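Give me structure tokens for this 265-residue protein.
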Amino acid sequence: MLSLDFMQHAYEAGTIVAILCGIVGVFVVARKLSFLAHTLSEIGFSGAAFGVWIGWAPFQSMMLFTFLSSILASRIGINQQRRDAATSSVSALFMGLGVLFLSFSSKNASYTTSILFGSIVGISFGNVIQIIVVSMIVMILTMLIYRRLKFDSFDQIGSQIADRQNSYINIIFIVMMALSVSVASQIVGALLIFILLTLPAYTAQFYARSVSAMIFISIGLSLVGTWLGLYLAYETNWPVTFFIAAIETFFYLASLFAKTIKAQK
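Here you go.
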């Protein structure tokens, strides 16, 4: 299996994506931004479709769309209920735009499917380099603002009292999340990015007693799900996204069941 170039590229890209999502996902969950992550993935789909239509590389156009939308989202200062409604409206709009852009292009249905749900055969060496570069940028940013981001994410009230500049942390993090969405789409597709950005982090909450432990557990779960998912996809020729989603969902439900049983004793 690993003698094939496309599988080598898939495992290389999958590994860096899993590590990135394991880190960023912890803060996505803590900041209750799972819905926004899902919306950014749909905006990314629209961006990729736009790139296909006009002849740009889907990865670059996806990054452009998610980056610009993340800046806009971070500056919206409305209450939670209106923000959720606005996010739902934007999500629906960009899904429709994505379908429209693809209808204008000359690509076939299989190409559309790879954008939506990922494809292990579509990852080239160039894609791997792009994924590594963007992922390293996000990880370096995370290290630079780690202490401030942790404080702002896990003690938001205290953070607001101690420092009124927390809005800048919010802007930086949402941009980081947008870049992570663009990177992760290469493995799990545009529509199911939130699987790696949320489920491992949610599962890690059952076991971790500190933020650093939660990050390490989240990374481990992401790696296991991605590696095993790629292997099963190669062996069965089924979509890799299905296996990653099934594995990560199993981890979460098993942990939830174990915690429920333990609480009843």
